[in-house]
Amino acid sequence: MRKASFLVLFSSLLIVLLAACSSDSDETTSINIGEVTRSVFYTPQYVALEKGFFEDEGLDVELQTTWGGDTTMTALLSDGIDVALVGAETSIYVYAQDSNDYAVNFAQLTQTDGTFLVSKENVENFEWEDLKDSNFLGQRKGGMPQMVGEFVLKQHGIDPHNDLNLSQNIDFANIPSAFATGDYEYVQLFEPTASVFEKEGNGHVIASFGEESGHVPYTVFMAKQSYFEDNPENVKAFTRAIYQAQQWVEDADPEEIAEVVQPYFDDVELDILTSSIERYKNQGSFATDPILDEEEWNNLKNIMDEAGELPEDVPYEDVVNTDIAEEIMNE
C-alpha cells in the first residue's frame, strides 16, 4: 500500500516538474519597439515580425509607431519603449545634451537615404542645375531627409537656401498632399509614395538621394545604455532576429517580400509595394547585416556638419556598439 502511494506521489511530482520545465522553455521576453514612422524603408523589421524570427529567439515584440524623431527619443529615454528604430542622428543630439543614460546604436537597418527627387512635370534629361530657382518642398529641418538632401544639392553646386525657393514648414505626414495641391515643382518623397505619385500621374521620380549620398546609418535600432548593460541577452536575441531578416530580404525576390510585409501596408497595392521594395533593393538601401561601421558614422557626421546641425564631434565608440552584431555574424 505504501509502495502504491509512493508511486502515485512520485508520478504527481514528475508531472509538476515536467510542466514547470515546459513552462520555462516556452517563456518569452517582452520588448517594445518604437518606430519613427511606418515605412516600406523598414521592410526587414516587418519581415522579422511576420516570419517569426523574433519568436524563434524567445522574444514577444510589440511594435508601435511613435511618429517623429523627437517623440521616439522621448519615449525611449522615459522608458516608454525598450528599443527605438530611428535615425542615428538622434543619438548624437541626445549625447550632446550630456545625458547620463544616452542611446547606444547596436543594429543598423537601412544604410542609405530613402528619399527620391520627384518632379511634378516630366523632366527629360534631368540635370541637377535644373533645380535652381525652382519651388522646392523640403523635409523637416534637422532631420536626416533634409540634411541628406542639402548635402547632395551642395555636391552638385546648389545652395539650397539661396538657389532654391525652399519650403520647410510642412509636417512630414502632410508633405505629399502639400506637393500635390501646391505650386511646388520638386519634392523629396519616400516609397511607396513616390511610386504612387508616378502611377497616378502626379509626379515623376527623376533621381535618388540614396544613390547620390552613399552609405550612411540612416535608420538604426538603439537602446539606452542602461538597458544595453542590464539586458545583453535580449539585445543579442533581438539582433540575431534582425540579422536573419536582413539575410532573408537579401535573398528573396521583391514580390515575395511584398507579400510577407503587406499586412503592415493595407492601403498600398501589391504591385506598388513590390516596385518600392525593388527600388530600395536595387540601390542597396536595406543593410544586409547589422554592423554600423565607423566610415558610415563619419559620413553621417559630415552630412550633419554640412547642414550646420552637428552639435559636437561625438566619438563613434561612445554611442555605437557592434560587439553583439559581430558575435552573431561569427556564429
From TrEMBL:
UniProt xrefs under Pfam families: NMT1_2 (PF13379)
Keyword Signal among record annotations: yes
Secretion signal, residue range per the UniProt entry: 1-19
Coiled coil: none
Keyword Signal: yes
Localization in the cell: Periplasm
Keywords noted in UniProt: Signal
One cellular-component annotation, GO: periplasmic space
Family from the record: Belongs to the bacterial solute-binding protein SsuA/TauA family.
PANTHER family, per database record: ALIPHATIC SULFONATES-BINDING PROTEIN-RELATED, TAURINE-BINDING PERIPLASMIC PROTEIN
Name of the protein in its database record: NitT/TauT family transport system substrate-binding protein
Phylogenetic placement of the source organism: Bacteria, Bacillati, Bacillota, Bacilli, Bacillales
